[in-house]
Amino acid sequence: MGINVTQSSMPLYEEYCDEIKELWDSHWLTNMGVKHRKFQADLEEYLNTPHAILYTNGHLALENVLAALNLPIGGEVITTPFTFASTTHAIVRNNLVPVFCDINDTDYTMDVTKIEDLITDATCAIVPVHVYGNLCDIEAIDLIAKKYDLKVIYDAAHAFGVEKNGVNAANFGDASMFSFHATKVFNTIEGGAITFADNSLVQVMNDMKNFGIRGTESVNFVGGNAKMNEFQAAMGICNLRHVDEEIQKRQKVVARYRERLTGIEGIKLSTPQIGVRSNFAYFPVIFDGYKYTRDRVHELLKENDIVARKYFYPLTNCFECYQDYPTAGGEKTPVAQYIADRVLTLPLYADLPMEDVDRICDIVLG
Ligand SMILES: *Cc1c(COP(=O)(O)O)cnc(C)c1O
Question: Which one of 51, 150, 156, 319 is least enclosed by Cβ atoms within 10 Å?
Fold first, then answer.
């Protein structure tokens, strides 16, 4: 039987039906109804964060928070190309210029030793990306941001439930974006949130997602529409009850992968970060000098109806749409290019049977 790279977490059918039952009485399907309000409260408690504003997806949450921070048009934003299209697109769609910083080759997050060289008078923000459930070097980024008076907005799409020394990833920088897309550790089908501590951001983040409508007869802000609906919120309420259990199951899958693939010549695994409780979002493997190339392993798995993913490949600074950008080109971020050319994320989800993990490893090990 085939194995997909991931499988969306879902509550029991009955649990979800119970949760949405009252919507058939109220006929209230969206516009910050009871499910939206409950999910927001549950989420703020789980993430232990002052504010979590819900969005219909993570990308619009990121696009909107960048707009909400009033960054200057044409301002430069330091980010990394080792990410999903969303991060770079959100910057560019706000008329900001992405300046690509390389990543480090241990946890694949922004190489903080290379940030300062990229800062100019036009730099206004840093958008670092937590990758695979690894956290960025938050302390170093914080120091640089303070020194140069820069905003820091984390793309935390991969970091739901991740903690450093007991502090949840929702509480770093000026704001963090979470994605609750179906493929993530925690999902609301599609969905996302922005978390932050600054009370003055609450109104604008709410305005951004609901046309700036503040009352039946008052529109105070030129906002768009990016509201999370009641069915998404209900899914969130249900899935949140089980997310810790899901993460524990993922941890077991990852432990088995590590057991089978550690110490193999030409195979490199990422090192668990000290003090970090990971969410085991992805299991990246670097094939470097292995008997098979990354692309060959990808093919071998495919021949067995197993989907692994070249993630992230290509780098965003290699996308056709960024060809004409002065900051584009993978050669400017050699470590990111090196990893992107060699990485494969293996199938990983809470209910992936151990026999399947073994079968995948058998194929990889040939
Ligand atoms: C999934 C993801 C996003 C976008 O989130 P959506 O909810 O799909 O819009 C952004 N950045 C990264 C790193 C992601 O993995």
Answer: 319
Are the CB atoms for 155 and 87 separated by under 8 Å?
yes
- Write the residue with the smallest CA distance to atom 7 of ligand 1: 58
> Ligand 1 centroid vs 87 CA: distance in angstroms?
8
Task: List, edge to edge, every strand of the sheet that includes 267-269.
Answer: 267-269, 283-287, 343-346
The predicted-structure confidence for 34-76, as pLDDT tens digits, reads as follows 999 999 999 999 999 999 999 999 999 999 999 999 999 999 9
Question: 166, exposed or middle or buried, with CB in 10 Å at 0-12, 13-18, 19+?
Answer: exposed
Pairing of strands 76-79, 151-155: unpaired
Residue 221 pLDDT level (bands cut at 50, 70, 90): very high
Percent of the chain beyond pLDDT 70?
A: 100
Please state the φ and ψ torsions of residue 326, each to the nearest 5 degrees. Answer: -60, -25
In this prediction, residues 79-93 reach a mean pLDDT of 98
Closest protein CA for atom 5 of ligand 1: 58
Ligand 1: residue whose CA is nearest its atom 2: 157
The residues pairing with 176 across neighbouring beta strands, listed in sequence order, are 154, 195
Q: Distances in Å between the alpha carbon of 11 and those of 4, 40, 191, 229, 242?
A: 19, 18, 16, 18, 8
Instruction: Delineate the domains of the chain, giving CATH numbers in brackets.
Output: 13-238 (3.40.640.10), 243-365 (3.90.1150.10)
Q: Which helix (H) or strand (E) is 358 found in, with range? A: helix 354-365
Sign of CA dihedral 215, 221, 225, 231: negative
DSSP-based three-state secondary structure for 98: strand
How many whole angstroms separate alpha carbon 116 and alpha carbon 78? 10
Q: What is the Cα–Cα distance from 79 to 100, expressed in whole angstroms? A: 5
pLDDT(1) > 90: no
Around ligand 1, the residues with Cβ closer than 6 Å are 57-59, 83-84, 86-87, 129, 155, 157-158, 179, 181, 192
